[in-house]
Design brief:
The complex is a heterodimer. Chain A is α+β, with helices and mostly antiparallel strands. Chain A has three helices and five strands. Chain A is globular and about 35 Å long. The N and C termini of chain A lie far apart (about 30 Å). By secondary structure, chain B is of the alpha+beta class. Chain B has a single domain, classed as Aldehyde Oxidoreductase, domain 3. Chain B is globular, with a radius of gyration of 16 Å. The two termini of chain B are about 30 Å apart. The chains are: A alpha+beta, B alpha+beta. At the A-B interface, strand 4 of A face strand 4, helix 2, helix 3 and strand 8 of B.
């Protein structure tokens, strides 16, 4: 699965994207976030406050209960500030 | 004669744009248009108590265009529009620079006013852009404002 990081999540994690192999127990976005948090202190810092985590699976916003599977592209970012 | 298909333009670009030329192109040949409303967003030199020297707009190529397309399609579904336009820049911008242009054209003004406000309100809460400001106190990521969520949420209320 491809993970994309944007804005200050990207600077905390230290990369713009990474490939991860999902453990079998991860089946939704909430489980994925828990899994990613354990990868490094930077990941944990980016995902510390879930109220500011926005998720897009294959370029569409999804809620935390949305299912994920290998082959998905999952983008993680803070609330948007364009306009 | 059947009405022409509504025009829906979305542009995400690094370059500056010419407001007059963009608005002219949007309604050219659309003789059913009675009015057009536009919103132009510019970079301010003050944010809170900090002086902003420049800002860099990051975005999510691909999703940005799709999300702006979805917001535009939603505006067309809600109001009888002849044409809509969203132009949004990314990259490094300085105070006074143009950031975003939204426009909605319709037979009558009320739909144009409402749809234009809807476009910018939803763009601010949904389009995947992030502003990194260079201020006299250093670089900082702009935080989302609750008032922007409130502005978008008013379109959910019964009308």
């Amino acid at each position: 699965m491809k993970i994309l990081w944007f804005a200050w999540f990207r600077t905390r994690v230290g990369k713009t994207e990474e490939q991860v192999t999902l453990p079998p127990e991860v089946s939704d976005v909430a489980g994925l976030l828990e899994f990613l948090r354990a990868r490094s202190p930077g990941h944990a810092a980016a995902l510390r406050d879930l109220s500011v985590v926005r998720v897009a699976v294959n370029q569409e916003y999804v809620p935390f209960h949305h299912p994920v599977r290998d082959g998905d592209e999952v983008a993680l970012f803070p609330p948007v500030t364009g306009g | 004669m059947s009405a022409p298909t509504p025009r829906m333009l979305v542009k995400v670009q690094r370059e500056d744009f010419d407001v007059g030329a963009e608005l002219d192109a949007l309604t050219r040949g659309r003789l059913g248009v009675g009015g057009m409303t536009s919103f132009l967003g510019l970079v301010r030199d003050i944010h809170g108590d900090a002086r902003v020297g420049a800002m860099t707009l990051e975005h999510f190529p691909g999703m940005t265009e799709r999300e702006l397309g979805r917001i535009s399609a939603e505006a067309h579904a809600r109001w009888p529009l002849e044409a809509t336009l969203v132009v949004h820049r990314f990259g490094r911008l300085e105070p006074g620079d143009r950031i975003v242009l939204c426009a909605a054209a319709s037979a009558h003004r009320q739909a144009a006013f409402d749809a234009c406000a809807f476009l910018i309100d939803f763009l601010k809460t949904r389009a995947p852009f992030w502003k990194l400001e260079a201020t006299d106190a250093g670089e900082r990521w702009v935080e989302a404002r609750a008032s922007d969520d409130d502005a978008a949420a008013r379109w959910d209320a019964p009308r």
